[in-house]
Design a protein that fits this description.
This protein is 56% helix and 9% strand. By secondary structure, it is an alpha+beta fold. The chain folds into 2 domains: 16-107 and 376-432, Uridine Diphospho-n-acetylenolpyruvylglucosamine Reductase, domain 2, CATH 3.30.43; 126-373 and 438-500, Orthogonal Bundle (Cytochrome p450), CATH 1.10.630.10. α8 (177-194) runs antiparallel to α14 and α9 packs across α11 (239-266). The relative contact order is 0.15. Keywords: Heme, Iron, Membrane, Metal-binding, Monooxygenase, Oxidoreductase, Transmembrane, Transmembrane helix.
Length: 500
Amino acid sequence: MFPLFTAIFSIIFIYFLYRTVIFFTDLYRRKTLANKLPRTSDEHPIWGVAPIWAKLDTAGILEWELKNANELRDQGHDVWCLNFAHENFILPLTGESIKPILESKNEITKGLGYDYITEWLGTGLLISKGEKWQQRRKLITPTFHFRHLENYVKTFNNHSKIFVEVVSELNGEEFDAVPYIKRCALDVICDAAMGATADVQHNPSHPYVMAIRDMLWINTEYMLKWQYWFPPYYYWSGMAKLYKNCLNILHTFTKKIIAERKAKRANGEKTRGTETNFLDMLLEHYDAGEIDDEGVREEVDTFMFEGHDTTSSGVSWAIWCIAHHPKVQQKLYNEILEVIGEDQEEIITTEHLKKMTYLDQVMKEVFRLYCPVPQVNRRLQEDFQSGPYLFPKGAVVTIAPILLARNKKVWGDDVLSFDPERFSEERESKRHPFDYIPFSAGPRNCIGQRFAQLEAKVMVCWLVRAFDFSSNLPFESNRAGTEAVLRPMSGIPIFAKRRI
Ligand code: HEM
């Protein structure tokens, strides 16, 4: 008995020793190679930037990053490596230096920050890797085909109309537009992704909305506050319980809708034409045996998550910019009158939007200055040669659209001012295409890009057509926090005065 126990113990011990040696050898190699890349001088030798970040809020971290990125570029660097405890983050700082990683077909594995949402979203399109990702991307891409987008535009109109009605009831009083915009975007994505309406604009305390709100809050708290990474604190604080509760509500809701939809389809009731939604298209693949039950559930949850918080951030910042730039607001309103006409209830179509070149410039400039997804990342599976630099295997490459969009060398000294003229045809053609990547680029770019652009434009059109926006808070005083999406730290406090 005793020798057997000793043998088992020895094997376990040798295995852990072996893993530890591998871990530290890899860490040493990665750190040595990473330290050859340009760095800033204020890092702690062991903890890197962790002590600096610990003192900042999410807006402070972004401001710190932007300042350092501009300084490094002034010193002639186009890549920056920063250490955070045992992790190495590599940030390409220019369109040219970010191109290789974005175009890579092999380095598409997501890095930090996704583990926590995996239990909710499963390994759907956002998180999956390798063959699974390729298969899903191929399967889902056609669901964003132009002819389906036409149908989605009707959905955008329906919910934007309700949005206008809800905001009209505030009678021009000051309000924070963020929760209103979120609720509208949530109704849109519920409808588009599942063909179900939660009608949260009229029902703000719907359990699904509350659960999504709490889930996003928990996610940000977990990422920013290290104490939650220690299981005893996580459980003791009540966070684990709240998380499980949210997860249960979210999964129960989507599973119920999927089951109802399947039952209807089994009875021969299939939606076609104008009513097509994402779930129905997925269920066609389910019927063909190309995706299973769990696959359908994880993709619906992925689209619910990716499809509303991002657009809400974009539209929120759009209203912020418009409220502070009366000339832009007037020019936009004139374009709406010219292209769509004076009828406040006229449905906005893709044909209208194609003609609205100024709206296009305005939204592009909003997504530049306030990239709704400020940064995403990849964990390198192999050493990666990027121009003259060697990025070591195991490092995290941070793709930060916001750092590129606020590069003074590209956008000028007035990089922080809001100027839609930057996107006039003539000025746009002079820039590197990767200097402006709010939807990322390359094989793992945003699959919902056109959906999001159309949705944001339809919402903004309905709003500007109905209201004259203004704000008492100065434009620059609203700091942007870099969380899963770019958050206005002061909300969007505005007045919406009915035009008619
Ligand atoms: C203004 C709104 C949006 C912005 C700025 C945005 C931005 C992005 C970015 C930067 C990525 C790349 C993530 C990465 O590389 O890790 C991404 C991925 C993704 N986005 Fe969006 N997004 C928006 C709206 C949407 C919408 C409305 C949907 C769905 C209807 C959507 C679905 C997705 C999905 C599923 C992915 C993962 C794609 C993949 O990995 O293959 N996004 N988005």
